[in-house]
Design a protein that fits this description.
two-stranded antiparallel sheet; mainly alpha; about 75% helix; about 260 residues; 2 strands
């Protein structure tokens, strides 16, 4: 029950923020990014996590400020510079890991802000498309794996994931993306883009699984009842969001990435 209740609340707030946009949207995802940063910096059993979190949180506030003023290019540059600065607070040998945590958290914030800032209504629709693809992939991969079973996808990283779950999840996620997107010029193209985003979402999940195995933790934290940490819920979403933002920006420019993704 805590797991279901938490999922319903998180989904409702996420969708509401996407529909409202503006400061509310940036505030919600900035808070998520700070939570991810906090979890990342506490994965390592090294001193100075508090300093790195405070410095990283300040960096994310700076990034969010640039995004609020419609300056995504400056936001990306600030993120890169601040990641290097935060890395300097870590002991030698841990600086790359520490700096990458800022990039990882900031990538979520920048990608979603870039997609949402596109012309109405495509900005909100792009974010809702992302929700549909990633959430459907996660849910159907779980049920597909449990009902069908079969060979494991990558047992060394995630003993419970199966190839059947991966195929069912990615296929259903791509189909959900087609169903919620505006009428595409080509259903084949829309399906291919959805397949890529869904597959990357599963890849992001495996990446975090490998991270937790490396540092011998079960969950990133206990912030979300029944789910573990924010990273545990958004690992695949971050990978898919970055893909969607980069694809949209490559097609129509960074200021209209949401339109570039969907049109």
């Amino acid at each position: 029950m805590p797991r279901v209740a938490s999922a319903c609340v998180m989904a409702a707030v996420a969708v509401a923020s996407a529909l409202i946009g503006g400061v509310a949207f940036l505030a919600f995802w900035s808070a998520a990014a700070v939570a991810i940063l906090w979890e990342w910096q506490h994965l390592f059993a090294i001193d100075g996590a508090g300093r790195r979190v405070w410095a990283g949180a300040l960096a994310l506030v700076i990034v969010a400020t640039f995004l609020a003023f419609g300056l995504p290019g400056w936001a990306v540059l600030a993120l890169l510079a601040c990641a290097g600065a935060v890395a300097g607070f870590a002991p030698r040998g841990w600086r790359v890991w520490s700096g990458f945590g800022v990039l990882y958290a900031g990538a979520l914030l920048v990608s979603l802000a870039v997609l949402r800032s596109s012309i109405a209504p495509l900005g909100a629709r792009a974010v809702l498309w992302l929700f549909a693809v990633v959430w459907t992939t996660d849910v159907m991969a779980y049920f597909g794996g449990r009902l069908i079973g079969g060979p494991k996808l990558w047992p060394r990283l995630s003993p419970s994931k199966t190839w059947s779950g991966f195929v069912v999840g990615v296929g259903c996620g791509a189909l959900a993306g087609v169903l919620v997107s505006p009428t595409p010029g080509s259903y084949v193209t829309a399906m291919v883009i959805g397949l890529a985003a869904a597959a990357l979402a599963q890849g992001g999940d495996l990446f975090e699984s490998s991270l937790k195995r490396r540092f011998k933790v079960k969950d990133a934290s206990g912030l979300i009842p029944g789910h573990g940490g924010v990273m545990d819920r958004l690992d695949g979403f971050i990978a898919a969001a970055v893909f969607a933002a980069v694809l949209g920006a490559a097609r129509l420019g960074i200021s209209t990435a949401g339109a570039g993704l969907l049109q």
